[in-house]
Design brief:
The structure holds two protein chains of two kinds. Chain A is an alpha+beta fold. In chain A, about 35% of the residues lie in helices and about 15% in strands. Chain A has five helices and five strands. Chain A has a five-stranded mixed β-sheet, sandwiched between helices. In chain A, a hairpin with a 2-residue loop joins strand 3 and strand 4 (about 55-60). The relative contact order of chain A is 0.17. Chain B is an alpha+beta fold. Helices cover about 30% and strands about 25% of the residues of chain B. Chain B has helices at about 10-20, 30-35, 75-80, 80-85, 85-95, 100, 105-115, 120-125, 140-145, 210-220, 245-260, and strands spanning about 5-10, 25, 45-50, 60, 65-70, 130-135, 135-140, 145, 150, 160-165, 170-175, 180-190, 195-200, 205-210. A five-stranded antiparallel β-sheet of chain B has the order 4-5-10-6-7. Chain B is globular. Classes of the chains: A alpha+beta, B alpha+beta. Chains A and B meet through strand 4 and helix 3 of A and strand 1, helix 2 and helix 6 of B.
C-alpha cells in the first residue's frame, strides 16, 4: 500500500492505494468518476482515455502509483459550470455517438489531437483516433464533430 | 493482476540495486502492464525507471544519434534534432501503436521486450545501433537473440541507444489493422559502407534480408528489387498473412522504403 497525491480535474486528491492498482480502477472505483469507461481492458479500444499532464493516455494500462504527483483530466473535467466543452457540444450536434460507450475516450483523444494540431485534416483525425474503437457509428460523424470543434476552439 | 511492490528509482544505481530474480523494470508499461493483467507475467518487485534522468535526453553528433532509453515514442516522432539527422526514426516512432501508446511507450522498453513484430528493433539492426546498458555497450547484431529474448542479463538496464547516421534511410510498415503491430516492417538504410535492410514481423525475430541488401548495393533503386524472390520457408504464417504474402510484402515494403529514402 502507498499514498498517492494527484490533481484530478483541478482538485487535489490523496488516497492510500495498492501498488498494483490501475489508473482506470482508481478513477472509477476510488474517485467514483465513472465517465471514464473500461471497454476491452487490454489497451486497444480507447474507452478509458484520460489526460495525464495534458497528454492522452490509456488509463487501463497505467498504474496509479506510476503517475503520483501528476495532473489528471477525465471527461468530467471538460465542461465548465454546466457548459459543455466545444468538443462535447460538437459530438452532440453531429450525433458523433450512438450507444455512447466509447464517447468519453473519443472526446479525450480528440481534445488532445487539437492540442497538437489546431486544424487537422480528415485523414489526420482518422489516424489520430486509431486507438479509439467505436462499434456503432462508422466514425463519419465523429470526424465531422472533431472538424467542427477545431473551428470553435 | 497479481500484487507486487512498486518502486520508483531515481538513479541507475538505485534501480539495479533493487533488481532481483523476481523483479522487472517498468518503463512505459505498454506491453508489461497488459502482460501482467493477463497473468502472462508476474513479479515480486516492479522498478519504475522513467524518472531516472540519465535515461532521458537526445544527443546528436556528426556520426550518431543517442536517445535515452526512457524517451517516449511521441518525443522521438516530434524531435526536430532527430528529424534533421535520421528522419526515418521519427517516421518509425510515429507509426508505433496509436497516439496514446506513443505518449507512454519508450524506446528502451520496446527493444528490451524484443517483440518479433515491434518496429524499433529494425531501426537498431539497420542503423548499427549500440545499446548502452548499466554494465556495457552491446551491438544491435548481438543484442536481439531470439523471440522476446535479448542479450540483457538479469538486472541489466538499458540506459540509451546510439544509432549511426546513414546517408539516407526509411521505414515502411504494413500494420495489422487491429493491433497496429507490423505484419511486415522494413527498415532500409544506405550507409557509406553498404545498404542494410532489417525486417520485422516476418520471422520469429528481427533479421537482415541479405538478398535485398545485395541487390540494393549494386543498384539503389526500386527496379533492382523487381526480380528478387524471398525464401518464404521460415516466414510466419498465421490468420493475418500467409508466408508467401509476407514474402511479397517484404519486397513491396522495401521498394516503398527505397522510393522514400531521405
Amino acid at each position: 500500500m502507498r499514498s498517492v497525491t494527484l490533481e484530478v480535474n483541478g482538485k487535489k486528491v490523496t488516497k492510500t492505494i495498492e501498488d498494483h492498482l490501475l489508473l482506470s480502477s482508481f478513477i472509477r472505483e476510488q474517485l467514483n468518476l465513472t465517465g471514464t469507461h473500461v471497454g476491452c481492458d487490454t489497451s486497444q479500444c480507447g474507452a478509458c482515455v484520460v489526460h495525464v499532464d495534458g497528454k492522452s493516455v490509456k488509463s487501463c494500462a497505467l498504474l496509479a502509483a506510476d503517475i503520483n504527483g501528476s495532473a489528471v483530466t477525465t471527461i468530467e473535467g471538460l465542461s465548465t459550470n454546466g457548459t459543455l466543452h466545444p468538443m462535447q457540444a460538437a459530438f452532440k450536434k453531429h450525433h458523433g455517438l450512438q450507444c455512447g460507450f466509447c464517447t468519453p475516450g473519443m472526446i479525450m483523444s480528440s481534445v488532445d489531437l487539437l492540442n497538437n494540431n489546431k486544424n487537422p485534416s480528415d485523414a489526420e483525425i482518422r489516424e489520430w483516433l486509431e486507438g479509439n474503437i467505436c462499434r456503432c457509428t462508422g466514425y463519419q460523424n465523429i470526424v465531422a464533430a472533431v472538424k467542427e470543434a477545431a473551428q470553435n476552439l | 493482476m497479481k500484487s507486487f511492490n512498486y518502486h520508483s528509482a531515481s538513479t541507475v544505481a538505485e534501480a539495479t540495486g533493487l533488481a532481483s530474480k523476481a523483479s522487472a523494470y517498468l518503463s512505459g508499461g505498454m506491453t508489461m502492464i497488459p502482460s501482467m493483467k493477463m497473468r502472462l507475467a508476474s513479479y515480486k518487485d516492479v522498478i519504475d525507471v522513467k524518472k531516472i534522468k540519465q535515461l532521458h535526453g537526445i544527443k546528436v553528433s556528426s556520426k550518431s544519434v543517442t536517445i535515452g532509453a526512457a524517451t517516449k515514442h511521441a518525443e522521438v516522432a516530434q524531435s526536430k534534432e532527430i528529424k534533421k539527422a535520421i528522419p526515418a526514426l521519427c517516421t518509425l516512432a510515429g507509426k508505433i501503436g496509436d497516439a496514446q501508446v506513443r505518449n507512454c511507450g519508450t524506446l528502451g522498453g520496446s527493444i528490451a521486450n524484443n517483440d518479433p513484430t515491434a518496429c524499433y528493433p529494425s531501426a537498431c539492426l539497420a542503423l548499427n545501433a549500440i545499446i548502452h546498458t548499466s554494465e556495457r555497450k552491446i551491438e544491435a547484431a548481438k543484442f536481439f537473440t531470439g523471440m522476446f529474448e535479448t542479450a540483457l542479463k538479469k538486472g541489466e538496464l538499458i540506459v540509451a541507444v546510439e544509432f549511426s547516421i546513414p546517408e539516407k534511410s526509411y521505414y515502411v510498415k504494413f500494420p495489422n489493422p487491429a493491433s497496429r503491430y507490423a505484419m511486415v516492417g522494413v527498415f532500409v538504410a544506405k550507409h557509406k559502407a553498404g545498404v542494410q535492410v532489417a525486417v520485422t514481423g516476418a520471422k520469429a525475430g528481427i533479421y537482415r534480408e541479405k538478398a535485398i541488401e545485395q541487390a540494393l548495393d549494386k543498384n539503389f533503386s526500386e527496379k533492382a528489387l523487381d526480380n528478387i524472390i524471398i525464401d518464404s520457408s521460415d516466414l510466419n504464417s498465421d490468420i493475418h498473412a500467409s508466408a508467401d504474402y509476407r514474402a511479397s510484402l517484404i519486397i513491396s515494403s522495401a521498394k516503398q522504403a527505397v522510393a522514400h529514402c531521405k
